Amino acid sequence: MSIIPFDDRDGVIWFDGALIPWREARLHILSHGLHYASCVFEGERAYNGAIFKMDEHHRRLHASANILGFEIPYTVEQINAASMAVLRENGLVDAYVRPVAWRGSEMMGVSAQETRIHVAIAAWPWPSYFSPEMRAKGIRLMRAPYRRPSPECAPVHSKAAGLYMICTMSKHAAEAKGYHDCLMLDYRGRIAEATGANIFLLQDGVLHTPIPDCFLDGITRRTVIELARARGIEVVERAILPEELANTSEVFLTGTAAEVTPVGEIEGHTFKVGEVTRTLMDAYANAVRNPAEASAA
Ligand SMILES: Cc1ncc(COP(=O)(O)O)c(C=O)c1O
């Protein structure tokens, strides 16, 4: 597989207030965000030239930074406009959009009170997080070697770079064993989510999803709950134990990158890509391209 590195592409990236050539969007190696994970980001998708739930994503970017103790030096409206400019100037209509904010180089100890906050926004085509074949059959999940930490152990409600360390390690462990991703339990041993997406289980015609009290309450998760309820599908948010996989008929993941992705297997438990999953895959695919209809649903 030939890889085109992300630092060597054509186009422009918005960096601290201006669009600059893609390859020039660099930071110094002595940046606090790199050494101490004082960094937050967003993952968004544009469909037909419009970013789905753009305001929500950029409000979450601000909230994530506030949780980590810093302010994004641009308003939500400015980040909205900058994101749209990035799409326009790169000629992108359907794309993944990645805003990121981090502490700079003014201080290099643990304390970072005086660091400047930098913000960048990049966008690129990213058709599907999981391949169409995987999505058709349902992906295979392994039990993650790491658990989601408790709210006393980490800023769990921030989309903070540091929280992804255990996600990358878990995903690599899964890939090493031929799985596509991991099911992560939380610190109590309850089902939490995957490494970059939330999870739903269908049991006796009712959808169940964990309460997001120690992991990201995904924007896609909230959208899918609304879409399901609008279609008369009952959704229950509750604590879910891994033993319950035995009486679960369908499982799917939700996330901006993953959209609605069926799960075919979790370590020996198999699930069909059934009617409820297919209904919500279609409903989500329609909602992202017709957002006005979706919010009226
Ligand atoms: C760890 C994690 N959980 C859940 C989600 C789903 O969030 P959203 O639907 O807002 O993209 C993501 C993706 O951003 C994620 O990285």
Q: What is the count of distinct domains?
A: 2
Q: Evaluate the radius of gyration.
A: 19 Å
What do we call the CATH topology of the largest domain? D-amino Acid Aminotransferase, Chain A, domain 2
The major sheet is characterized as: 9 strands, mixed
Roughly how much helix do the residues carry, as a percent range?
25-40%
Characterize the structure shown.
The chain has 297 residues and is of the alpha+beta class. It has 2 domains: 12-124, D-amino Acid Aminotransferase, Chain A, domain 1 (2-Layer Sandwich), CATH 3.30.470.10; 132-296, D-amino Acid Aminotransferase, Chain A, domain 2, CATH 3.20.10.10. 28% of the residues lie in helices and 26% in strands. The protein has 8 helices and 16 strands. It has helices at residues 32-36, 54-67, 76-89, 132-137, 165-176, 219-230, 275-289, 291-296; strands at residues 12-15, 18-21, 39-41, 44-47, 50-51, 95-103, 117-124, 139-143, 181-185, 191-193, 198-203, 206-209, 235-237, 250-255, 259-266, 269-270. Strands 8, 9, 10, 11, 12, 13, 14, 15 and 16 form a 9-stranded mixed sheet that branches. Strands 1, 2, 3, 4, 5, 6 and 7 form a 7-stranded antiparallel sheet that branches. Helix 2 (54-67) crosses helix 3. The longest helix has 15 residues, at 275-289. It is globular, with a radius of gyration of 19 Å. 40% of the residues are buried. The structure holds pyridoxal-5'-phosphate (PLP).
Features:
D-amino Acid Aminotransferase, Chain A, domain 1; 8 helices; 297 residues; 9-stranded mixed beta sheet; D-amino Acid Aminotransferase, Chain A, domain 2; binds pyridoxal-5'-phosphate; alpha+beta; 7-stranded antiparallel beta sheet
